Amino acid sequence: MRTNLILIYLLVSTFSFGQPGISPTKEIEGFTYYEHTVTPGNTLYGIQRMYDISIEEIKVANPGLTESLSEGQKILIPKGKQENIIDYTVKDKETLYGISRKFNTSVKKLKELNPILETAGLQKDQVIKVPSEQKVRAAIDPDKHNLNDAPKESLNPFVKEDSTKADVEVKQRSFSDTSVVHTVLSHETLYSIANRFMVSTDELMRTNNLSNSVISEGQKLIIPIKKENEGEIDKKSVDPFIEDAIESVSSIPSKSEYNVALMLPFFIEHGQGYTKYISDISVQFYMGMLVAVDSLKKLNLNAKLHVYDTKNDTEQVKNILEKPEFKDIDLIIGPLYGKTIPIVADFSKRTGTKMVCPINVDKKLLRNNTNIYASVPSDVTLFNGLAKNLVASNYDRVVLIRPSDSDGALIAETFKTAYLDLAVNGQSPSISDADEVNFKDFVKKGKRVAFVYPTEDKLKVIKFMSRLNSAAILSKEDEVTIFGTKDWVKFEEINNVYKNKYNFHYPGPNYLDYYSNDLIEMNRNFRSRFNTDLSKFSIQAYDITTFFSFYLFGLESAPKSLMNQFMIEQIDDGDGFENRSVFIVEQENFELIKKEVIAR
Hints:
The chain is an alpha/beta fold. It is about 30% helix and about 20% strand. It has helices at about 5, 45-50, 55-60, 95-100, 105-115, 115-120, 190-195, 200-205, 240-245, 275-295, 315-320, 340-350, 380-390, 405-420, 460-470, 495-500, 515-530, 535-555, and strands spanning about 25-30, 30-35, 75-80, 85-90, 125-135, 180-185, 220-225, 260-265, 305-310, 330-335, 355, 370-375, 395-400, 430-435, 450, 480-485, 505-510, 570, 575-580, 580-590, 590-600. Strand 13 (about 395-400), helix 14 and strand 14 form a beta-alpha-beta unit. The protein is globular and about 80 Å long.
């Protein structure tokens, strides 16, 4: 039985640990220190988070201190960061986000120090003010230590969800100051593991005594995990983007209580068709929805949640839809995938019950059914959004590489049609067709070319990148830009250096910034409730539930979406509705950065 997973939200974690204001202080040669007593589970990683100070500063204050701590050990913690302000000259293609990482600060702090950035932005060779931590004096032998060249600790707030099927789990962790052991999978690199667990590669190398970044399948790595304080999610004002997206506030009559059905393949009792991956995704989605319902209660929305296990079985779904309580359901979220979706879609059409699809679905499902809402833009919509982005760009030429597979060919055709419809003679870049081999002829020295290749075929992408690199090896950094699909991000076989060199972009349905204050705050609340970290599926559930409750139930305000910006439009008269917002995302300095949001 997996009922314990479905009821995981009942788990509540309790935390207690030393922190500034509780630990005693100590004066040594004019410097003030906290005297921290090591408790079971403490690590240097956790202690440095607890006191908001770097591991290097702790080691400077405690010469000879190692990663191996013992219960009752006394550690001196410098009291407060000694911050001074220095001048920094902006390098070519640097971003505020990148600079904030380099100096272990926030974008908000940089803007406070440099008000001009709010209006004029960031320019190459611009001199800006940045915070720089002063050296902390060692309590015993200060002359032996130098912090000038010490690497910065990662600011990563929490574990990043990995979309790899083989390793997606709902993990119940206590999140005390400790570490976990991770077994390296065949496709993983040190960089991808660092990304997944949101720690720096330098820290992984130090923790595991690695002399380089080479790792092998089956190798055991120690991953430091930190402890968090319990937090609350504040009520948020309406996102201006959402206000613009809503034409009619509500399509469901006002009621004192709304009934919402969540239909997902939990596979509580396993059974035929069970996969751990799908079952865990469903649980993660459910947990995110529970947090959303709590947030909506603060906005005076009274909603009753009905949860159903579809098992991805058509007969099971039909039985659920025939239940007496389903006559009073106002909104259905789900199912997740497969042949069960059309059955629920047909039910929504016959009964007038609103249905929100939480994943990408075939747009044919929306035809002649005004009760269906596709929360995720289709691939065609994404590339039509890209067309809108590129017609207003300053490239010398846009080259459309037509994939040989039927799905890619369809997307390519709709992209070109949209581009030609939007293009302005003399202002938009000219567009040319190419195939998967002769595209190399368009690589020209001194010309800025955008290559659009809408394929999800990994082998084709690998061949494309290899051919491009041989043709453009002498090109300057800004002369070649590639636009692929969001799936390319998962293709670790593609050299990330190539993605950086050729300015890899893709149109995506959403963008997840793990460093945003809203997401960090949300994760603290999520941890305190479920003893585990947010996954992308939990965040998607939160966004969908809060937005569509606002959109369909007529709330005056809604919590801000965490990774979506919904722009709901009807496909055509008599058809359903689709989210038409498109995120243009770029890989920059080995990180994914949101460049623009296109409202189709």
